[in-house]
Amino acid sequence: xxxxxxxxxxITGTSRGFGREWALAAxxxxxSVAATARDASSLDDVVAQxxxxxxxxxxxxxxxxxxxxxxARAHEHFGRLDIVVNNAGYGxxxxxxxxxxxxxxxxxxxxxxxAMWVTQAALPIMREQGSGHLLQVSxxxxxxxxxxxxxxxxxxxxLEGFSxxxxxxxxxxxxxxxxxxxxxxxxxxGGSSARHSTPLPAYDGVREQAxxxxxxxxxxxxxPAASAKAVMEIVDAEQPPLRVFFGDAPLGIAEADYASRLxxxxxxxxxxxxxQG
Length: 277
Prior knowledge:
- The structure is a single chain.
- This protein has 277 residues and is an alpha/beta fold.
- It has one domain (8-252): Rossmann fold.
- It is built from 9 helices and 9 strands.
- β6 (132-137), α5 and β7 form a beta-alpha-beta unit.
């Protein structure tokens, strides 16, 4: 199939939430999308509406070989890859002591390795083109941390770290990297897509505090459909940002968190000097 006039997107996790809204927005403006989901039939209505400009692919991002195959199929189908969005992921709720090995590994497998495999699969294509844009869906939880979601934070901090390194590695190839860091949005992140550890009664009080804090942070959740406008501005920018917040709350959280870190680092700088000898 010859490349369409618009740009070519590859988006993971398009069955609902951000992934679906961004795919629809890209298609609405004339771009084409390779849309992945664990169940590609969830995209039947999108395919029916937009036809050949949608390539619906079944993908479990924890399967490295499947990720490489899906990216290759998208490239073969459309002829190029302009924008790759690593959106697939979920939140796991559980205190650090409550997490099982299987639960922690599963969180990392999806949120970190899934993004890594898709990124690695797309990079040779983008290098050959001399252009491309990777959008890594992180979170305010990628730079700050809260009770009950330590495994999720671990996954997003890892995504942030490898993506910042990646941005420096691929800049000379004409490839951009952007970490999108949303606050609270009306997605299913904390609903049926979330997973939960078996609670220990010892943490009941902490759990109540955490729930109250989360309600306060997400009192005015953002609209996933509205976020599509922000994504389009980012991908249309000549020099897109490495990091960008989505929603009003994250900046205040980040400012308070980093002010506290700087204060502590400065207060303990004498220890840094002692350690150096």
